[in-house]
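Regression report. Comparing outputs from two consecutive submissions.

Submission 1:
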Amino acid sequence: METIILDGDNLTIDQVVSIARDGTKVALAPASREEIIRKRNYIDENWLTENAPATYGFNTGVGKLKDYPISQADNEKFQKNIVLSHASGVGEPASEEIVRAMMAVRINAFCLGVSGLRIEVVDRLVEMLNRGVHPVVPIQGSVGACGDLAPLAHMVSVMIGFEQADAYYQGERMPAPAALEKAGIAPTEFVLHAKDCLALINGNSLSAGMAALTVYDAERMMKMADVYAALSLEAIRGEQAAFDPRIHAVRKQPGQINAAENIRRLIKGSRRTTEACRAVHLDDDILHPTHHARVQDQYSFRCMPQVHGSCRDQLEHAKTLLTRELNAATDNPLVFWNDMGALEFLSGGNFHCEPIAFAMDLLSIALVEIGNISERRLFALCDTTLNYGLPPNLAGQPIGLNYGYGIIATAATAVASENKTMAFPSVADSISTKSSQEDHVSMAPWSCRKAQQILNNMHKIIGVEGLLATRAIFLTKEKLGSFALGEGTAPLYAELSKVIPLVQEDSYMQNQITPAFEMVKSCKALDIVEGAIGAIK
């Protein structure tokens, strides 16, 4: 496994995922190391004096206490006090992958060379990440304004070897000194110097790391939404003209164009979505006693490219914002060389996580919409007024004695509705903190957690759609089995009908739900389809 070189400019979402989930190691780019050392040497030689000008967090208090001076003699104690006072998170511990992503983003921010901390600090954080010392970081407590102060302070409490801080090492929770010692990181007690602590805790890293993982997973989920939508189209013998590339070319929306192309590739070669197949009258088609050419399908099928594509466009926008944030210096103050070759400390607000909050709120709305339209398609599959002859509730014979799939469809509706309640943008819910020193906050951490919760519900909705589409094709195989499925949908149906125990009569639904959900959650469905027709856009 190749080591990822961090330089502050080129960290990708995929690399964050590799570091967080695969344990990929990191190292500093030589140029970044050189600049960190060069700046810190200047600071040590010119700024660590009692007569140095007041510089926020360097020789002054922080937050509302910014006007209180800190002497050089007290600076090491001041650094530790910031860690202890700011380690104030609440709630359950963040997952190991979120903590690893957070650590990687924090290290990469230092590689821009404008944070002013010591290289020993950066090296220790790299060592912790590479050797698998994962601080226990409560997931709640940050408003994403002065960065993710509380979560990062918990990270630093382990870094300094504070005996009451906890870390996970090789899956076991233990006091920080024990974790460091077992990992071979010495000394277990580590002293922070001027500016070290503020550089470590004042940044976007929890939000950015969590967002990177969610965006990566959301992209795969949106691809699977196209895959399962195509299977539902096969189930109702849908009309293909709505996916003609000429329609989408004149709309000029890239996500829509790609989604329509995905559907065309998935159903390429399908005979089930032809007029010849639609001409076969199914016994339960009470609305159409005689065949008439189907002019168009309902919106949840016909407008798949427009809706899925719009959601994809929001995902792409979120990826753009987030990639910038992964490669940003987000602490305060920052240090820059001036025209005379001297350093200047500049106080600003790069720690404010507004871009991440917007990105994740938009992604949340997009994911909710994917769930909404999926729920409408699966609803249609059960409704005899919408499904063109499929049995009511997709019940087996004899209908009535067998109830079918109405309740699992309702479960998907419940989850889709639950997701809707989380669509409100957190970024719009600012609240003043710290005696109004921070009078506007981003709420990015909640935006990230909320997007993750929505995403964690998505396999339940899309999984039910896949289950019902598979059931619909299974129930009609006697009359329609001679009509081939598409190049992408055929192997998917073959696998789903293999892992889901489908029979005519009612059976224990959990035995069908579990494999149907796992096909989505594990991305196996996407792997099967891409193995047959190549990458889904």
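Submission 2:
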Amino acid sequence: MTGGDALTKTLLSEGTDTVFGIPGVQLDGLTDGMYRHREELGLVVPRHEQATTYMADGFARVSARPGVAMVVPGPGVLNAGAGLATAYACSTPVLLVAGTIPSPLVGAGLGALHEIPAQTETLAGLTKWAARPTRAEEIPELVHEAYRQMRSGRPRPTAIEVAPDLLHQEIDVTIGEPFAVARPPLPATNVHRLADLMRRSRRIVLYVGGGVKGQRAFDLLPRLAAALDAAVVMTDNGRGAIDARDPHALPAFAMRTLRERADLVIGLGTRFVTPFGAPVATGSAQVALVNADPADLAAPRDAALTICADATDVLAALVPQIEPQAGWGEELVRERTDSDRLVRGTVAPQMAFVDAIRAALPDDGILVNELTQVGYVSTYGFPVHAPRSYVWPGYQGTLGYAVPTALGATVGAGGRAVVVLTGDGGFGWSLQELATARKYGIPTVIVLFEDGRFGNVWRIQRDSYGGRFIGSDLTNPDFSVLAQAFGVAFTTAADPAQVQRAIGDALTAGVPTVVRVPVGDFPSPWSLIHERH
């Protein structure tokens, strides 16, 4: 077989059935190998290299399977970098298969096609693990290791670079099986200490992040919360750890009042820092932290107890140990009521649209959320009812990521409905992917809020800089004509009720659809976002 055959067969041995990638001359040996296995391994080709890693990220987030992207070296790798950075921020298992220049030329600085200095080091800065085989026979082992790294400890992206000469080389090699993933035993003593802390506390806050995900966690967390009568506060990436309708579930900004009365705050699978680098404020409460990444247990955090382990495994160990006990009681009922009243009183116009989108989606429907005026409100106002059904770019705040990420999510969703909420600013960075949706029949519903500006930048310039507007206004195309040119369904919705009907109609039709929503100025969504810290 060739090196390209070996790489293809190794991807298949790891259970991969879809690659999001764009062919190029340095990858010809790989795509030729993929052609020979085209019935088993599908290739989805977007219209911009940045979309390869975004789509792989969306695929992985909703499917619980690693997403795989493929690009040429140099500019291809750089274009894919934003998606890798987002996957890194959100602890998503994404494998980037990147081409390189021919092996004898690597590092020579001779200006080979697509050459950039220190590509390997560039990828290492955006991934958990990266490697470049120097012999074609090393390809299966390194690909297996990339998957093992994604499945071990904290899941984050990995990368493997392969030179064109290695992809074309004829080799005799055994593909082998996926590498075993060692799960270190739980630190039983500290788990028992945490259980004791819980038994001695009465106002417990379970502060959950993106490390609490999937169906197993979704089943365990409500049981622990019910036994403790604890508040469950979800960070942006923790949305979907518990059904928002659960009587213990609260949005992130609820910490501003809970911390004044809590006696124990337990961070589960969260970095436990604010966007400004300070630890989450907890008042006089004791703090315990559980995280698979030891870096997220260290300073500036100050915890009475830390457990370096998978948060879901710790939940599974705690649930049998905790008997029902007194907790927040009616205080929690009032907190949920007050939180809902505060949201609706502060950002009512945005919440009307958020409610419409939620009503149009089934419980397990997926929302991919963008950085827009309605999107910001959705970070705390959109009720998430099922695991792996809410996608957000985390601390990377990657404007323009949402549409390609939603397309990848739709591919990986197993038939679940996917709606992406975006604005005319972010959509302008990825509108070419309407061609991808049309080509592959990906039935993503794109709710496009159009206000003719980068809304958040515009508001800051108005409110903080005396109306000295610069660079915040947009000149948009006629989106109806644009959608028609790409062969994608289009409609305009003037109010929340029409948005709800338009999403429902699009989901019933099962075709890619743009729902344009013209809007004006909204109340600032930022007060409640800042309140949480």
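Expected: both submissions complete independently.
Actual: both completed, but the second showed a warning that disappeared on reload.
Relevant detail on submission 2: The first strand starts at residue 18 and ends at 21.
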